[in-house]
Design a protein that fits this description.
CATH superfamily: IHF-like DNA-binding proteins
CATH topology: HU Protein, Chain A
Structural class: alpha+beta
Largest sheet: 3 strands, antiparallel
Strand content: 25-35%
GO molecular function: DNA binding; structural constituent of chromatin
Helix content: 40-55%
Family: Belongs to the bacterial histone-like protein family.
CATH architecture: Irregular
Pfam families: Bac_DNA_binding
Organism: Parabacteroides gordonii MS-1 = DSM 23371
Keywords: DNA condensation, DNA-binding
Length: about 100
């Protein structure tokens, strides 16, 4: 599913215009990016936890040439899904005996 498909799904479920749901998605992404950029985590109950993560500098290798090159340290994000989200993902497997 891409952004437009997601926006259409949200618009249909909430009886909103697609342009408004796109603006909603963009705003959520902006707020998440700004908050995590300030080195703060974001917890969405029953969905998951977004946590900033500082990757350290390390050496990498160009797979085509084999040349070793440094990879600079950078900010990244880790996502840990919440219990409610995992339950929703696995609700179809309840009857499968897993």
């Amino acid at each position: 599913m891409n952004k437009i498909e997601l926006a259409k799904e949200i618009a249909g479920r909430m009886s909103l215009p697609v342009t408004m749901s796109i603006k909603f998605i963009d705003t959520i992404c902006d707020v998440l990016g700004e908050t995590i950029g300030k080195n703060e985590s974001v917890l969405l109950q029953n969905f998951g936890h977004f946590q900033p993560w500082q990757q350290s500098e390390r050496s990498g290798r160009n797979p085509r040439t084999g040349v070793v090159c440094p990879i600079r340290k950078r900010m990244s994000v880790k996502f840990k899904p919440g219990k409610g989200f995992l339950a929703k993902l696995n609700e179809n497997e309840k009857g499968a005996g897993i």
